[in-house]
Protein 1
Amino acid sequence: MSSAVIIGGGDFPRKPFPRELIRRADVIVCCDGNALKAFLRNRERIFGDTSREPDAVVGDMDSMSPSLAKKYSRILIKVEEQDDNDQTKALHHIINNFPEVDTVHILAATGRREDHTVGNLGLLMEYARSLSGAEGPSIDMVSDYSTAFAITDSCDLFLGKGRRISIFSPDNSLKITSKGLEWQTSGVVFDNWWPATLNRTTEDVVSLKLSHKSVALIITD
C-alpha cells in the first residue's frame, strides 16, 4: 500500500492528523507556488528537518516566483491548459506517474476562498464518477475540521458512533435510504446544498442505500 498527498493553496493543516498524513506519505505533490511555499514553511515541524522535498509541483505556475521556479525547476510540472484546476492536474500526475499509489489525501484545499472550497469539494464527486469501476486510488479531502469523500453506489461506512455527517448530491432524482443515522434521509430531495446536512451517526456502521447509481459527497468530522 502506498499513499500520496496533494497540498493545495488553502489553509495549511495545523492539527496532528492531517500533518501525520503528510509525514507518512510516500508521494507529495504541491499545487503551484503558494502550496510549495506553505509546505516549505511547515516541513520542519512535520518531519523534524528540512530535507524532505515534494516529489512534484504541478500547475500553471501562476503563483510561482522566479526564484522558487529556478531552485525547484527539476520537479516543476507546468500544465498550462485551463480546463482543469491545479488540484485536478496534480491528481492526474499522481495517477499517471505513481501507479503504486492506492490512497490520495488532498490537503489545504479549503479555507481562504469559499469559491475554491466549494469547487474543490465538488471535484471529489467528479473524481469518484470518473474512477468508478476502474482501478484507481481512493481519494479524500482532509482538513483540520473534516474528512470528505464521494460515493457512487450503495455502501457501508465504518465511521464510528457519534460522528457528525453531512450528505450532498447534485442529483435531485436520487433517493438515499440510511441506517445508523439520527435522522433518516429517505425523504430528502437533493435540490439544494443543505437538506441532508448536520446529521449524526448513531451506530458504528452507517449503511446508505442509493435508489440508483449516482454520486454523493460525504463530509464527516
Protein 2
Amino acid sequence: MKEIQISRRLQSVAAFVKTGKTLADVGCDHGYIPIYLLQKKQIEKAIAMDINQGPLMRAQEHIYEWGLENYISTRLSDGVQALKPNEAESVVIAGMGGPLMEKILTEGEVVLRTVQEMVLQPQSEIGAFRKFLSKNGYCIIEEEMVLEDGKYYPIMRVIHGKMEYKTEAEYLYGKELLKNRNPVLKEFLKREQEKAEILIQKLKNSQTASARIRISQLDKEWKNRKEALAYYEM
C-alpha cells in the first residue's frame, strides 16, 4: 500500500517528532499525522484526540482505510484531559490559535510534565505564545517556518527546561529561526515590512488621533523587524 500524502505544513510538524514510542495528537482533525508517522515507522502507536466527535469520526475512517486500527486509538478529549500521565512520550498540538494552546497547556500541566517533547504549531499570537512557554518552564529547542497557500506557519519542538530570550524580536520572530537565518522567516519579515510601509503612507495622509497612534505602533513593529533582519546581515 502506498503512503498517505499530507501537506507541507503537516510534513514539517511530523518531522519534528523525534522521541518516543507513543504519540498523542491533540486536535487530530483527520488523523493524518499519526498515520503518516506510523507508515514512516517513526512511532509505534498513537492516540488521536479531538474535542469534537465529527473530526474523530473522520480520523477513524482514515485509520481503518489505512489498516492502522490496531496502532491508533481515538479519544474524545478537551485538550489532553483524556490522556493519562506517562501514556505518551510525544504530544503534537497543531493548527490552533496561541491562546487556545496556552489554555490546553495550562489545564493539562500535570499530564504534560510526563511527556518528553511537544511539537507545537500555533496559528496566532506567536510572540505572546513564546513568552508563555518561557514563563511556564518550557524550552524551544528547534523551530521551523513553512509557507503554504500564502500563509506562514512556525513549528516548534519543545521540551521541559529554561529558555533565555533577550529581546522582543526573539520572542516575536523566534530565536532559533533568527539564529539559523531561516529563509522563510526572512521572506515573511520583508513582506511584513512592505505592507507596513504602504499602510504608514496611507495613515500619514490622515490627521486623526487614531491614525497617529497606529503610526506609533507600526514604528515600534518596524524597529523589531529591523532588529530581526539584522541577524541575516551577520
